[in-house]
């Protein structure tokens, strides 16, 4: 017996490329991506699945993130994801105190940092 879910809205994909940071001894999180995904979830999208695909090239390397999203409301269904990402990216520019860091990355404090 096959079970299917009846969905009011069709699936949508959201892709994002995270470039590899320079070699580091400590971990980093991708701040801008965290914010973008958080905003999508606030706008009533559900993550149904996601895939990662790494890219190793001479001039550029990183990872592609592909999310399968399902809108949960009419408002989310009507949202143009390309326009959403462009508008949100411009709003989420890093503040002046992080300009000397790598754009999009921020340091995760380790419990051993206080001992240095």
Characterize the structure shown.
The protein has a 3-stranded antiparallel beta sheet. A two-stranded antiparallel ribbon has the order 2-5. The chain is an alpha+beta fold and 116 residues long. It has one domain: Alpha-Beta Plaits. The relative contact order is 0.24. The longest helix is centred in the N-terminal third of the chain and has 12 residues. The protein has 3 helices and 5 strands; from the N terminus they run ββαββααβ. The chain starts with 11 loop residues before the first strand and ends in a 9-residue tail after the last strand.
Layout of helices and strands, plus pairs?
Layout: E1 12-19, E2 28-30, H1 31-42, E3 45-56, E4 61-71, H2 74-78, H3 81-91, E5 105-107
Antiparallel strand pairs: 1-4, 2-5, 3-4
Overview features:
alpha+beta; 116 residues; Alpha-Beta Plaits; 24% helix; single chain; 3 helices; disordered C terminus; three-stranded antiparallel sheet
Radius of gyration: 18 Å
Silhouette? elongated
Q: What is the count of β-strands?
A: 5
What structural category characterises the helix and strand content?
alpha+beta
| Overall domain count | 1
> What fraction, in percent, of the residue positions are helical?
10-25%
- Termini distance? 61 Å
Average pLDDT confidence is 76
Approximately what portion of the residues adopt beta-strand conformation?
Answer: 25-35%
